[in-house]
UniProtKB/TrEMBL annotation:
Organism: Terrabacter carboxydivorans
SMART domains: Elp3
InterPro entries noted in UniProt: CHP03960_rSAM (IPR023862), Elp3/MiaA/NifB-like_rSAM (IPR006638), Radical_SAM_N2 (IPR045784), rSAM (IPR007197), rSAM_horseshoe (IPR023404), rSAM_sf (IPR058240)
Domain Radical SAM core: 271-509
Protein name, UniProt field: TIGR03960 family B12-binding radical SAM protein
Taxonomic superkingdom: Bacteria
Pfam families linked: Radical_SAM (PF04055), Radical_SAM_N2 (PF19864)
């Protein structure tokens, strides 16, 4: 029977796999609704719309994901819908499921993914594509959308990688670009109405209805033609798909206070990568870092109010029992009321062991008062800053307006206030970068250690340098840039490691962590690829590719071999997609997906980067015409609101203050 629990059949497999608890479900605040929660119509037609939501990675990575958690709750609040979660199963469980003839299942009701109406996957990284194919195959859903019938789930991709879904166009039925909260409700309405009508016109009809909204991209309704040299000639709506728009627009949720999700955050049963309750304090970023896809595609900035944040923290802590609250955004210290927010929360939870944390902090937005408020009730952990580029010159290229003096002043304040450990994050392979730009990272790290020793009077000062490889991303000024090759990346990082270790006065105090160039090149292929890259993904998966974001499972040799075979009959190769610089007139695979950013503005910003010209943040300066606000009908929403947080906690006088305030 559709919707039936498979747990009795799954249970004997659990003792044969690693970390069986990740497949059990039943977490605090999880939801299992009746399969027919929406009931039936007068003629017996089905009135429930069912979503299986997947973060295509291991449970420990996927379960804290805010995007999936929010959609899970938004959908389950509807009386006519249900949503359950599924995650990538490890190879040992995959083998057990195949041997037992059991499908990909949800962790909530242990139902077969194939029984659901919609299968939604959230991709924060392209390296999860092979895990999607495993899930489809295990679920019994045909890999290619063209082979699916009316009884197969509609496969929808979302998340940041969905801003260029072309490499997976043959595997998905649709993609949603941008914020998902309102978008999934619209999709639910359309699918629910189609089901209530008796599913007229079959699968094609419901996909046409979705595509005609202008906010759901259905690749099957778009034809791609190519030039003899391999470049794209045109992407156009198919002649037999009337009403399908030329461009598909991203979704933007305004007024975050109206969407205070998650209200009941999930508490994982097994250890996860983030053991905390998180609140998104604002969405979007206009700092204008040219490498940062997340900042570009989530414009404009929309702040949650200080009181809205306070209510979410209070409710979330009560619902979860966590002792740490993560204040999330792309640049959390940029919230216009961050000082009042941090102090208000620290006051409210004084004496409760409730700690506050920010993700990596901008050097020029950090101050010791803020840091002290964040650690007042919790433990004092390391601080993470992201200068991104080692030299002043390269920071101008990427529009990271942080000077060496800014960094030294900030770390001096941190070490002087009692911190012992600072982590610095940089990138290797940025446009116009030279060996000298990267070697400046070593000099900067040495100055950080020396400064820390001087201001603290101690020798146990530590600094960790973490290096990530730069991957050009769609919808950024660097979408035209060439990517640094594997050998060049590794050679540059080797020189940096030697430079750090060469000076005995500092070498032992500087930790060095880096990723080699191999995964970055594969990510580059997938992030800027077109539909022809789908053959590579499928070949890698059929050859055993799984969990490509995990170094112990990633095989560079497999990707290279499969790419060579897949591109044998077309005028493109791996280098064409990765280390080749694009021209201004080239049609890019994602041009028909509208992020709001004007392509001419992006090109001008690319030219500005080559001239080492910096651009200000439009939050504090006049608009510089990136295109988002007029094109999307949105605007920047920032404070200050002038409101303060009441000390609501029952520990102390908070309850009495609240009662007096209410009366």
């Amino acid at each position: 029977m559709p919707g039936e629990s498979l747990f009795n059949a799954l249970e004997p497999l659990l003792e044969r796999v690693n970390k069986p608890i990740q497949y059990v479900g039943g977490e605090l605040n999880s939801t299992v609704k009746d399969w027919h929660v929406g009931g039936h119509g007068p003629d017996g037609e089905e009135l429930t719309t069912r979503w299986a939501l997947m973060y295509p990675d291991a449970y420990e990575v996927g379960v804290p994901n805010q995007g999936v958690m929010i959609l899970y709750e938004v959908l389950n609040e509807r009386a006519d819908a249900l949503a359950e979660r599924t995650y990538a199963v490890w190879p040992d469980m995959e083998a057990q499921l195949r041997e037992a003839g059991l499908p990909q299942f949800t962790v909530d009701g242990h139902r077969s993914v194939r029984d659901f109406d919609l299968f939604g996957l959230s991709f924060s990284t392209e390296l999860g594509y092979t895990n999607m194919l495993t899930a489809l195959d295990l679920a019994g859903i045909p890999l290619h959308s063209v082979d699916r019938d009316v009884d197969d789930p509609i496969v929808i991709a979302g998340g940041h990688a969905a801003f260029n879904p072309e490499p997976i166009a043959s595997f998905i039925d649709a993609a949603i670009v941008g914020d998902g909260e309102q978008a999934v409700l619209t999709v639910t309405d359309i699918v629910g109405e189609w089901k209530a009508q008796g599913r007229p016109g079959g699968r094609r009809e419901v996909l046409l209805r979705l595509a005609r909204t202008g906010g759901v991209y259905v690749p099957a309704f778009y034809d791609v033609s190519y030039l003899p040299d391999g470049r794209i000639q045109r992407v156009a709506p198919s002649a037999d798909a009337p009403g399908v728009p030329w461009r598909v627009s991203k979704h933007t949720v305004m007024d975050l206070d109206a969407w205070p999700y998650p209200k009941q955050p999930l508490v994982p049963l097994a250890e996860s990568v983030h053991e905390r309750m998180s609140v998104e304090i604002f969405r979007g970023c206009t700092r204008g870092c040219r490498f940062c896809q997340a900042g570009m595609i989530t414009r404009p900035v929309r702040e949650r109010s200080i009181t809205g944040i306070g209510e979410m923290v209070e409710r979330g802590l009560a619902a979860t029992g966590f002792e740490e609250v993560g204040l999330l955004s792309l640049s959390s210290a940029d919230h216009t009321e961050i000082a009042d927010l941090a102090k208000g929360l620290a006051d409210r939870y004084e004496g409760t062991q409730t700690g506050l944390s920010l993700p990596s902090t901008r050097v020029d937005a950090f101050n010791i008062d803020l840091a002290n408020e964040l650690t007042r009730n919790g433990r004092r952990s390391g601080l993470t800053f992201a200068p991104e580029g080692g030299s002043e010159r390269i920071r101008k290229v990427i529009n990271k307006m942080v000077s060496e003096e800014d960094l030294i002043k900030t770390v001096a304040a941190a070490y002087g206030a009692g911190w012992r450990q600072v982590k610095l994050y940089f990138m290797c392979g940025l446009p116009t970068e030279t060996d000298e730009d990267v070697l400046q990272i070593a000099e900067l790290a040495k100055k950080v250690i020396e400064t820390g020793r001087q201001v603290s009077g101690r020798r146990d000062i530590r600094c960790t340098v973490s290096i990530g490889g730069f991957v050009p991303k769609p919808h950024t000024p660097f979408q035209w840039a060439s990517q640094l090759g594997v050998e060049e990346t590794d050679a540059r990082l080797l020189k940096l490691r030697e430079a750090i270790r060469a000076d005995k006065r500092y070498g032992s105090s500087i930790g060095f962590r880096y990723h080699d160039g191999q995964p970055g090149i594969v990510e580059g292929l997938l992030s800027r690829g077109d539909r022809r890259v789908g053959k590579v993904i499928e070949a890698v998966w059929r050859d055993g590719g799984r969990f490509d974001g995990w170094s112990e499972h990633f095989s560079y040799e497999r990707w290279m071999r499969c790419a060579d075979e897949a591109f044998a009959d077309v005028p493109v190769d791996l280098a064409w997609y990765t280390t080749r610089e694009r021209g201004e007139s080239e049609v890019l695979p994602w041009d028909h997906l509208d992020s709001g950013l004007d392509k001419d503005w992006l090109w001008e910003d690319w030219q500005d980067s080559l001239d080492e010209t910096e651009v200000d943040d439009c939050r504090w300066t006049p608009c510089f015409d990136c295109g988002v606000c007029p094109q999307m009908g949105t605007e920047i929403e920032i404070g200050p609101t002038g409101k303060t947080l009441l000390p609501l906690t029952v520990l102390g006088s908070g309850r009495q203050d609240l009662l007096e305030h209410q009366h």
